[in-house]
Design brief:
Shape: globular
Helix content: 55-70%
Largest sheet: 3 strands, antiparallel
Number of helices: 13
Order of helices and strands: HHHHHHHHHHHEHEEHEEE
Strand content: 5-15%
CATH class of the largest domain: Mainly Alpha
Radius of gyration: 26 Å
CATH superfamily of the largest domain: Tetratricopeptide repeat domain
Number of domains: 2
Number of strands: 6
Amino acid sequence: MKTRITIIAVLLMAMTATTALARVPRKQPTALDKGMMAYDKEQYEEAIRWMDEALAQNADNGIALAYKGASLRLLDRMAEAEPVLARAAQLIDDTNSTTRAWVHHERFYALVSLGDTVQAMREIDLAIADNDRKAQYFRNRGVIHSERGNLEEAIADYDRAIALDPGDEQVKAMRDETAQYLEKYNQATAGGAVVVVTEREVTEKDGLVKPQFPGGMDALREHIYKKTGWTSAKAPVSVMVEVTIDKTGRVTNAVVSKGVDPKLDKKALDICRKLPNFVPATFEGKPVETTMTIPVRFPKPKK
């Protein structure tokens, strides 16, 4: 009889504990939690709505601003994303420096797309200052150094990126190409030889007018989006294509500087090679050959 009573007592205790646990309310996800989950699922419009709700409760929520800005950037709403990311970087303190590095890097992308490579360089420097273990940060800073003609600095950044991610074959190719260009440049300038002026050498100098697509950058984006089928309502993947524009404004060469997969890379190249003529760049009033990098966005393929 004692044994039976003991078992009944244990069962009663277990039932009581279960009942007590059932009374404890589960923590409901906050607007910030829901926004972050939507972002992880690449539902960027929904993420923005939840982050706006979180910001209505606390306008100085740096994390909410960060995810909202990143979502806007991924939806190609760069002019909206840039100030939101700038504010987020101001609000996130040193205790969360890795997240702040990500915010600086997101703002870097927005600024590059808006054509402000000077401020973009400052942002990527800040990202690296906060987190110097991210290969992508060094890789992207190397690209900007290369475009501005700082070839030795570009090679140093590519080397750092390779050390952090030895399997990135594309950055190795970019490093080799830059090293070859630097060697040719040094050979051309030895003994006072004249070097043809290109955008790479004169980006920081007065007198350069960059090539213009008819109707401006908005018209260029619209032209590309009609070819790719991408809209801001869809999660994008981006193929970065470097094009050479000659003195007449014609695209004479196109190479993929950052690819996605062979099929999309090939399509992006085909789109860029068939672009209408630009108004050519000029330096000190004279047409010059230039290079520029164009992002070609496609709807993200279904897994």
